[in-house]
Design a protein that fits this description.
Elements lengths: L1 E2 L5 H10 L5 H12 L13 H10 E2 L4 E7 L5 E6 L5 E8 L4 E4 L3 E3 L14 E4 L2 H15 L5 E4 L9 H12 L11 E5 L3 H9 L5 E5 L5 H7 L2 H4 L2 H15 L3 E7 L7 H10 L5 E7 L12 H13 L3 E5 L28
Parallel strand pairs: 1-2, 6-9, 9-10, 10-11, 11-12, 12-13, 13-14
Antiparallel strand pairs: 3-4, 4-5, 5-6, 7-8
Helix pairs in contact: 1-2, 4-5, 6-9, 10-11
The structure holds S-adenosyl-L-homocysteine.
The site of S-adenosyl-L-homocysteine has 17 residues, from β10 and β12.
Length: about 350
């Protein structure tokens, strides 16, 4: 039996055609499951009885287990979902005025162990299937009965470390006959995996890329992001530039301001120099302190930092952190999967 949400329209079309069903069968199914949100082939009334049986015999509709739902005072909602193997992940719904963003996880845990981020604290368990990515969206939009206008891959995990499943999930989100998201409404965030960025560019999905920078000098960056040892700034910036030129897209750099660590005038100047001369914007966010030694920057430091960027002609946004009171803010996601009590005895 196959998980229906792991199939792109193209793959489902091939599957149906291989069994001598017409191409439009897959389109009908996509319409039923992604537009009308049906989870039962029997109810697909415009599909022939024979085709319905064929689908029933070959596919199933998996569900995520809703383990917990917490709402922040600012309207942000964090979901904890259980997967079929007992692992757990989190997704965060962030409503703004006209934008309703859903932040999705791509892995259980994370390999990259950025020092300021909780997601990698317990190491890496496994990649999510495309179906588990899509299902976070289906579950949240069903639960809240509200629309999602934007998708960001900024939850738990490193998206570019799970490329085949990420690409498949994005294709399903973009499919005009299904969920029909616009390319501008989807953003993938990476800690800077160079071969992943190349491969992602080659897939030509046309969606947005965001790179978590957090420091503009190798020494500083390596201290908080071990991935910088393998993929240092010069090469990273070169490949991001290639991406931006090739995809004709501006790229976003994420920069969490950490008090006394990366928030000085000198840091701002280094950042300005590093990303000068190409189509990029900086997304500044004050660090959400989830670890000792990583405190948010004071207001005065932020003012000076942004003035320096302005002086250097760098576009930036100063983002407000959301959902901090329920640990749903950037870097705070860390789905704890509760192991059953092992009957531990002290000796
Ligand atoms: N692995 C990907 C996706 C995670 S996205 C990546 O690194 O981009 C999560 C975003 O939140 C990243 O930009 C990450 O650097 C940022 N982040 C992590 N911890 C944070 C913290 N304590 N404060 C602010 N932002 C943080």
């Amino acid at each position: 039996m196959e998980d229906i949400y792991n199939y792109t329209l193209e793959e489902l079309t091939k599957f149906c055609q291989a069994a001598d069903y017409p191409r439009f069968l897959a389109q009908q199914v996509f319409n039923w499951i992604y537009r009308r949100r049906l989870e039962d082939f029997i109810l697909m009334t415009n599909v022939s009885k024979d085709a319905r049986k064929f689908l029933e015999d070959n596919f199933f509709f998996p569900r995520l287990k809703s383990l917990k739902k917490e709402e922040s005072s600012d309207g942000t909602v964090k979901f904890l979902f259980g997967l079929s193997d007992g692992a757990a992940i989190e997704s965060v719904y962030i409503p703004e005025r006209e934008r309703f963003t859903l932040c999705l996880s791509t892995q259980v845990g994370c390999k990259y162990a950025c020092k300021f981020c909780a997601s990698g604290r317990d190491g890496f368990q496994r990649n999510l299937a495309a179906s588990e990515i899509i299902n976070q969206y289906l579950s949240v939009s069903k639960d809240l009965n509200s629309k999602v206008t934007n998708i960001v891959f900024m939850g738990i995990g490193e998206p570019l470390d799970n490329l085949p499943n990420l690409i498949k999930a994005i294709q399903i989100f973009l499919e005009p006959k299904g969920l029909g998201f616009g390319k501008n409404k989807i953003c993938v965030s990476t800690s800077g995996i160079i071969p992943g960025i190349r491969e992602f560019a080659a897939a030509s999905l046309g969606v947005k890329l965001s790179v978590s920078l957090h420091a503009a000098e190798d020494g500083t960056r390596t201290k908080i992001m071990p991935v910088n040892k393998k993929y240092p700034l010069k090469e990273l910036i070169a490949v991001v530039k290639e991406f931006s030129l090739g995809q004709k897209r501006s790229v976003m750099f994420e920069y969490a301001l950490i008090k006394g660590f990366n928030d000085s005038l000198r840091d701002a100047a280094a950042l300005g120099k590093l990303i000068k001369g190409f189509d990029a914007k900086v997304n500044l966010i004050n660090c959400n302190s989830s670890f000792e030694g990583f405190e948010p920057s004071p207001d005065e430091a932020i003012v000076e930092f942004t003035q320096e960027l302005k002086k250097r002609g760098i576009f930036y946004f100063l983002r407000k952190s959301r959902g901090g009171d329920i640990n749903a803010a950037c870097g705070q996601l860390k789905a704890k999967f509760e192991k059953p009590n092992q009957g531990f005895r002290s000796t």
